[in-house]
Amino acid sequence: MANSESGRHRVPRINPELRERESVLPLELFFDLVFVLGFTQCTALMVANPTFEGVGRGMLVLAVLWWAWVGYAWLTSVINPEEGAVRIAMFGAMAALLIVALCVPEAFGDRALAFAVAYGIVRAGQIVLFLLGSREDPRLRHSVWGLAVSSAIGSGLLVSASFLDGWAQVALWGVAILIDWGGPALFGVEGWQLVPAHFAERHGLVIILALGESIIALGVAAEVELTTEVIAAGVLGIGLSAALWWTYFDVVSLVTAVRLIRMPDRKTRNRFARDSYSYLHFPMVAGIVLSALGAEEVLAHVHEPLDGVHAFALLGGVAIYLLGHVALRLRNAHTLNRQRFALALLLFGLIPLAMEVSALATVIGLDVLMWGMIAYENSRYGEGRYRLRHGEENAVPGAPPAEDSNEDGGGEDPR
């Protein structure tokens, strides 16, 4: 009889502790594939309206998609997405996200209401799962209710905006995003919890997804005749994507993850995660998506100068990406990454020149500048970079020391 009772015992289907033993799961990777379509659709929206207004609208949609993804990144640090009925709920959220992505090209037009309603369903599903996962954690439940308020207001404003048009619609979108994004700042983060290594890995993977979208953009543009110049531009486009990958994954992602893991308490860790990942990773993703828009135009018109919009997208997108890195270091190490800040400013200053020379010349110059900066950083921070990449975590300046170490992690920041 006792064995029978034991056999009927079940591990709780939703338990925050389940995440402690796991890295990113296959279902999370599967879930994130919907966002590849979402990122691609943002680029399609901007391609269909190649004006600064169109770019602005594309960035608004991207901000909404990003916040939906962020919510589920926090959620899967609380519950195991592959446990029991949670798996079915995640599939339901994927279906709603697919509708959101399909509506993106007309998110300010005929499909505005469908976009807003589907987005509201995505956010509501996240809140329900959060409430289930917080049954034994009153602090977490209090934070979830705060998030529910900001999410409901933000989603409601998007529904209201669907009945407007022009600048009134755009303005209401902006207000909705500010309120939705502002929830964790307004209601505090003390109650949230996360698994640091898992959380950092999730954000690294979304950077990969954005870079993947930039590769897709190159493939779409390659429908033109495959001349020597087009081949060269395609190779240079891959070189640019590789440079963007290097500037994040070579050191920055490792430094940020180590700092998150070593945060001394729940409140400090949650603030770090909110600022460094939920907020400051967005300009990196936005910069990658913008640069993909510019790179697509390079392959389509390799011999012609870029117009103002696409010159801004290519050079300004990379500059925004670098400024995201600068802001991340300011937030966490309270120091300025001078070479990345200087290069970002230079790229903004080169936009007028890109409108005078061929698109191929522009992408050549951009690759030279990016890889030149990488070479400079590798030579200057070689020792610290080596120590960090080979597991010597005390090479991270400004991070709390590991519990089993007496080192203070001094030295130059290898970024």
What does this structure look like?
The chain is an all-alpha fold. It has 2 domains: 15-193, no CATH class; 196-401, I/LWEQ domain (Up-down Bundle). 73% of the residues lie in helices and 0% in strands. It is globular and about 60 Å long. The N and C termini lie far apart (62 Å).
Fraction of residues in β-strands: under 5%
Q: How many helices?
A: 17
Element pattern in H and E? HHHHHHHHHHHHHHHHH
CATH fold-level name of the largest domain:
I/LWEQ domain
Instruction: Specify the CATH architecture of the largest domain.
Output: Up-down Bundle
Major sheet attributes: none
* Tally of DSSP β-strands: 0
Name of the CATH class of the largest domain: Mainly Alpha
- Percent range of helical residues: over 70%
What is the radius of gyration computed over CA atoms, rounded to a whole number of angstroms? 22 Å
| Global morphology | globular
Mean pLDDT: 86
Tally of separate domains = 2
Low-confidence stretches: 1-19, 403-411
Structural class: mainly alpha
- The termini sit apart by 62 Å
Secondary-structure map:
Elements: H1 2-7, H2 26-48, H3 52-75, H4 85-103, H5 112-133, H6 138-161, H7 166-187, H8 196-221, H9 228-249, H10 252-261, H11 266-279, H12 282-300, H13 308-333, H14 338-349, H15 351-354, H16 359-380, H17 382-389
